[in-house]
């Protein structure tokens, strides 16, 4: 019982640590104004136009760290602080979201694969625990296996998300440096912001993989005991 308690504490602390890290880093560099003095909205618009994405709109979105690119509506959505702010953090985040728009334009394979996994991952994430719980409490291996397969779809989605996010950050840095949006000193600060944000995806994927492996071990032991 003690080991299970420690296990659940650890998997709970991993995402919390990642969230605290990104909030701390964003809080720090949101107070550092970029030399260019551009708002996040201006940064996004400039990079979009430089890449021929004139049709992609830049919109303000409510909510802290709610920044995202919507491939359906072709919009870059920035949180109010990043949309209006002139900070290094805002510039980095805006450029990152535009990085996704550039991926969309270029039909980046990992992004397309992630989009194709969305419906499967949604079903898997919502339904997996029903089968897992039935399998665990009723001691029915086949029900547990169905839950593991569905859970695996969600884990695959999170793993595919990692290269998509890292690639968007790489594109972002190339754009802000190449277009002179940030200087050499600010480049290091912008990288810290993007690396901290990436930690949230890494933490989520790590927890998902660990949980999937735990269920596989339980399934293996259940089958062994039945034999």
TrEMBL record:
It comes from the Bacteria. InterPro entries: Zn_peptidase_2. The chain crosses the membrane at residues 6-22, 117-137, 143-164, 193-219. Keywords: Membrane, Transmembrane, Transmembrane helix. This is Zn-dependent protease. It comes from Heyndrickxia shackletonii.
